[in-house]
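Researcher: Please translate sequence to structure tokens.
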Amino acid sequence: MNAKVKTVFSILAIISIILFCFSISPVTLQNDTFYTIKVGEHIVQNGIDMQDPFSWHEGLAYTYPHWLYDVGMYLIYQVGGMVGIYLSTVILACILGIVIYLINCKLSKNQLVSFIMTLAVMYLLKNFIAARAQLVTFILFALTVLCIEQYLQTKKKRYAVCLIVIPILIANLHCAVWPFYFVIYLPYIAEYIICVISDSDFWKRFQMWRYKVKVKKAVKKQQNEKVEMYIKKIGSYEEKIETARDNRKQRRKEPYRLKLEKRDATKGLILIFVICLFTGLLTPLHGTPYTYLYDTMQGNTTQSINEHQPLTIINDKDLMVLLVVVFAILIFTDTKIRLCDLFMLGGLLFMTFMSQRQMSMFFIIGGFVITRLIVAICDKYDKEGVEEVTKFIVSLPGKIILLAFIAVISLYFLRQVRDDSFISEYSYPVKAADYIVENLDLENIRLYNEYNYGSYLIFRGIPVFIDSRADLYAPEFNKKGFPDGEGKDIFSDYINISSIGTYYETKFEEYGITHLIMYKNAKLNMFISRDNNYKQLYEDDRFVIYERLNAND
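Model: Translation complete:
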């Protein structure tokens, strides 16, 4: 295939990917986006003080886990408002799609399969595309895979430099996922260690060393017959080692499903790995990258947040289809898979089953592995056919068919979000917040609110009881702000109150609650609406506001 065809195809592919990524990018902003903007504003105006400025709870220590991204979002909001936030999400989604396509092309050497797999991966990622720090880290993790693969292949220093710079960026953009950066290294290191062990011939080399020692002793004692005998033994072991090495090389060329490759550049990769372990110190967060994930896993917040829940595969048809494809390739073809790729898929799958949040990494990085497997099948069975399809796509009829197909798909996804607004009044208390700002004393009220829209209230300048920064309200994180070092389990109290697991009045008295805002259909509202100690101040189609009459007793 000539260079012109490849260039035209890449242009068409990138245009198609941009159109598709634009169509699947949500218009309505997620809950986390609102506090992200306000955190960025606070940092710009006050710096990083490791204290929470948005809740009315006193003494809560806050880690600012994605401070650099927050600052970036605030600056974008300052220039372009909510339109700017939306456009930044679209641009990052498009960049992610283009990066995945170019990396696939680089690693697999097949443009057509890379293009199809990129569209598939972006479709699987549609629920993860949002104005959140994870979208930036997706790009960085994808680039990490590229840099590792290229470094192992070329040993060029620029890839090593990139591998050291990337974790510094991740530690400041989203320190919660910083430990995951090192997970990507492990399959490559594990494969190298296994190859070293299998190639070591330890026992034979030990025997050679033993006989060499005996030769030296025999020479000193002038025992010529023993010297000759020992030298023959050494030669015998050398022949055995050489024969074993040749046999291993031959076996690795045979059509087994597993492919082992010992790459000397892995030694340098291990050194880079060790250096990167210290990049977590290059933040203003006082070592938070090292402790954040551990504290999160120890806390009780993960038990009540969907994205942290274990995955049930029967309920996720997309992942099920992807796994079926992988197993079909490995079972029904003689395509070989690299041991490091097998480790990568297995490790990512395990992490996905542990936490649904990790599914995105399985789609992105696992997508690179699956692309290589599919390309290997195409090269083995019908390489010329793939090239013919590629040439057809760059022809005029092919261009029309491809762009029309992408346009139809894009319109289908656009239809689903065309009526959305940046801030959904169905999900967020827009009018109720207006009432609070206009009629209540924000400096003196202690407002009880629900988790799902707490960030929006922060965005409106209203102090909150809780918001989607779940870690902030767990004692594992906020204990640093309390003299006794015990912390406050506000999150558990919220769960108990909202589910009527405890008598709400007792907790409201403990926290000094003065006002409440909640969904009209909330379980708690069924009790509050009948309680004479509460006076309704506001009501609309979705939300209701109460004053707690005995708050000052």
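Researcher: Any highlights?
Model: The chain is about 65% helix and 5% strand.
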